[in-house]
Amino acid sequence: MKQVALKKYLIQIAEKLTPESTLEDVYEQLSLLSDIDESEQQEKNGETLSQKDVQTMSREWLM
Q1: Helix pair angle (3-16, 23-44), 10° resolution
Q2: Domain tally for the chain?
Q3: pLDDT 10s digits, 3-55
Q4: How many angstroms separate the CA atoms of 17 and 34, rounded?
Q5: Where is the region Disordered (predicted)?
Q6: What is the residue range of 45's domain?
């Protein structure tokens, strides 16, 4: 994750914190945002699978 994105995400998370929020809550949100970033980058790079590819692969895994 880029430093600029990290700062942006931390600010977004901080704005939504409540007195009941824990450090674990912050980690979970940051992890989620990082995963979304990674997924979007993979999509831009064409690193995705079609539904048909997934079905074929899952049949192979289940055998």
Answers
A1: 140
A2: 1
A3: 888 899 999 999 999 999 999 999 999 999 999 999 999 999 999 999 999 99
A4: 18
A5: 37-63
A6: 3-62
